[in-house]
Design brief:
By secondary structure, the protein is of the alpha/beta class. It is built from 13 helices and ten strands. It is globular, with a radius of gyration of 19 Å.
Length: 315
């Protein structure tokens, strides 16, 4: 009971917390890349801002500074009157493989930002993960439309980023899902239910299964799925259709639609999900998963978790 009272106190104290990005006013010139970022690429061409996750050696896995860079880039695009649309993509073989488990799970607890030694403090965990969620939600709250181009994988935290975008175009053979829902995670953006409804969201999160682009489009998780060879063309076709609409008209439509979703409880769902995500990583099963990760490496531990061969409650 004491732990739940502590969590309630955290929730109340953070209801008014906002994660305000540092607004960057210097713009990348048309067709060039902005080199201020470490883990993303930012460029502008023909009224479109391109934000590209750029850690291809790690399948664009999320490190502590990636969310803030993403948020800053969205703010930069919103401040630029020459930008009408924002396209988010990933460099290399995948869009985003989620949080970097080599950094967050293989490392000793407390050795990296967002990680704590036991016993853990729910407040500290919430503060870190709340900031990440707010950074991803900058895509949802962007004054200008955001389009996510998904190839390879958009899993775990990578699916959080994708699902915060207004529109998603996905390669048919790409995979999307949230495997940490089996052990060691809860999707903090809570977007699954709003995209596909309660039963399909439960099916995906109870099993941790991945679905391909064709299935994602069939159930309405993403707007369009095309063969991988046609992905760039499909995104360009959509962008070209949108970028000729006045910025104010795009803003008007987005605000009305977002308001409908937000009135369905999005903010409170995200607050709860962020608290429960912290619990899931510090539960007995979550601790066992991280211990296993340190013993055999995150790739083997993830394989064991996602294949369903281990009952983590019995370790």
């Amino acid at each position: 009971m004491q732990a739940f009272r502590r969590i309630a106190q955290v929730s109340r104290s953070l209801r008014s917390v906002t994660y305000t990005p540092k607004l960057i006013t210097r713009q990348a010139s048309s067709g060039t890349s902005d080199d201020r970022y470490q883990s993303i690429l930012y460029s502008i061409k023909d009224r479109v801002a391109y934000i590209t996750l750029n850690r291809p050696h790690a399948l664009n896995a999320i490190t502590p500074h990636v969310p803030k860079e993403l948020q800053d880039a969205v703010a930069q695009a919103n401040a630029d009157d020459d930008v009408r649309v924002i396209v988010v993509s990933g460099n290399g073989k995948a869009f985003c493989a989620g949080y970097d488990l080599k950094l967050f799970a293989e490392s000793e607890r407390g050795s990296v930002g967002g990680s704590q030694k036991m016993p853990w403090d729910p407040y500290e965990d919430y503060r870190f993960m709340h900031a990440c969620t707010e950074a991803f939600m900058s895509l949802w709250r962007s004054l200008k439309p955001t389009i996510c181009k998904v190839h390879g994988y958009a899993v775990a935290g990578g699916s959080d980023i994708a699902l915060c975008c207004d529109l998603i175009v996905m390669a048919e053979d790409a995979k999307i899902g949230y495997p940490p829902s089996r052990v060691w995670g809860c999707p903090t953006t809570a977007m699954w239910t709003y995209r596909v409804g309660a039963e399909r969201a439960k099916r995906i999160l109870f099993t941790g299964e991945l679905i391909d682009g064709k299935e994602a489009a069939r159930i309405g998780l993403v707007g369009e799925a095309v063969p991988a060879t046609e992905l760039d063309t499909a995104v360009s076709r959509l962008v070209d259709r949108i970028k000729t609409v006045p910025t104010n008209q795009l803003f008007f439509q987005k605000q009305v639609i977002n308001q409908v979703v937000e009135h369905m409880g999005l903010s409170s769902a995200q607050r709860l999900a962020t608290l429960l995500d912290g619990m899931s990583r510090h539960s007995p099963e979550g601790v066992a998963f991280q211990k296993r990760t340190q013993e055999v490496g995150f790739k083997q531990a993830v394989h064991e978790r996602d294949s369903g061969i281990i009952d983590w409650s019995k370790l």
